[in-house]
Amino acid sequence: MATFTVSTGTINSLTRTLPLTKNTKPLFSPSLHLTLKASKSTLRGAITSMSYGKELAAAKNAASLAARLCQKVQKALLQADVQSKSDKSPVTVADYGSQAVVSVVLQKELDSASFSLVAEEDSGDLRKEEGKETLQRIMKLVNETLASDGTYGNAPLSEEDVLAAIDSGRSEGGPSGQHWVLDPIDGTKGFLRGDQYAVALGLLDEGKVVLGVLACPNLPLSEEKVGCLFYAQVSGGTYMQSLDGSTPTKVHVTDLDNPEEASFFESFEAAHSLHDLSSLIAKKLGVKAPPVRIDSQAKYGALSRGDGAIYLRFPHKGYREKIWDHAAGYLVVAEAGGVVSDAAGNPLDFSKGRYLDLHEGIIVTNQKLMPALLKAVKESLNEKASSL
Fold first, then answer.
1. Which of 155, 249, 276, 278 is deepest in the core (most CB within 10 A)?
2. Is residue 24, in this structure, part of any structural domain at all?
3. Which residues does the record give as Mg(2+) binding sites (predicted)?
């Protein structure tokens, strides 16, 4: 098992990794894996007994290739150094391109007749006259990426092929059958800044998340290497490896049981989560460390290997969480021994279509800290409500 060295201030290095340095290190060493308790339900039992090896191999390949495409776009973006905050064309190209690559790879590797993908993008804007130039850039990038693998580039995709691949993500999901769930670039603002982002791909089977893959190109793997691929299969544990396929390492959430020693993750952007509420919860827990604010589901990956103990997400009133924002990360943490719930302690339900119905927000930690965290969350929400 790989061992990582802890250094003072490393936790802050997660917030920005470009330009990259040799000294960027993960926080804590991964510890031994504890298998999740199996559910008592017959359906859950049937699902956990199944193997998703073929699907996992396809998902890892798809997410890695999509990350390769995104890295190429981000590198060009940062080298140009002329990107304005209002011009989101590079992330648009990467977003669509990533979704197309994942769709193409999954359909080539698996049964395309039953393929169902719940994803963020559709091709509507690209089919308009003003989207033609962008579509050309996407098609070129997708074909270059697929060809770079040496497996999928024999017959270049046409514009219509790329549009169809993007539009395959229009599925509504639901409680029956299998549905892939994709966020082609989770953390678009982080992507534009040169910070953290992730390609997040999960698989639902009868409404349950059974497979999760997170490709995190800017998250440190070790002192020498940047870029992580986290993957998990139901009842199979969580593993981490490099994006180019190093030997996988089984990871586990921290076994910390003292809230005062915990560090917590939250969204980088205040617009994405209520930082003041997270601060109140941390205060009630006695947390002494400042929050670690990073973009995307990279937080789930970092938490799964023990880089922190708590993740708090409380969106602003009226915002509805989408399943692609959490499906992959949920399983990555759960299979690493963590607990993911809404603010009331209810498990997340991914079976109701494109949206998650939640009580207030999402909280993530290990099993030892969850009771204290739920108590602090409840007290903080009550205080917040009484002050209105």
1. 278
2. no
3. 120, 183, 185-186, 325
- What is the CA 77 to chain-centroid distance, rounded? 22
Q: How far apart are CA 174 and CA 353, in angstroms?
A: 5
Q: How far apart are CA 370 and CA 360, in angstroms?
A: 16
Active-site residue identified among 92, 95, 238, 342: 95
**DSSP bridge partners of 241:** 229
The helix/strand/coil state of 180 is strand
186 appears as a binding residue in the annotation: yes
State the catalytic residue, choosing from 10, 92, 188, 365. Answer: 188
Q: Report the side by side order of strands in the sheet with 362-366.
A: 292-294, 264-267, 310-313, 362-366, 338-342
State the residue for tokens 């980088």: 268
User: 49-105: per-residue pLDDT in tens?
Assistant: 478 999 999 999 999 999 999 999 999 888 775 444 345 588 899 999 999 999 999
Weakest mean pLDDT among 22-31, 78-87, 150-159, 207-216: 22-31
SS3 182: strand
**Preceding omega of 347 cis (within 30 degrees of 0):** no
Residue 197 lies in a domain: yes
Q: CATH number of the domain that 366 lies in?
A: 3.40.190.80
Q: Is 224 annotated as a binding residue?
A: no
- Which of 194, 220, 250 is where one domain is finished? 250
Query: Which amino acid, residue 164?
Result: A
255 among the known binding-site residues? no
What is the count of structural domains for the chain? Answer: 2
Any catalytic annotation for residue 188?
yes
**325 among annotated binding-site residues:** yes
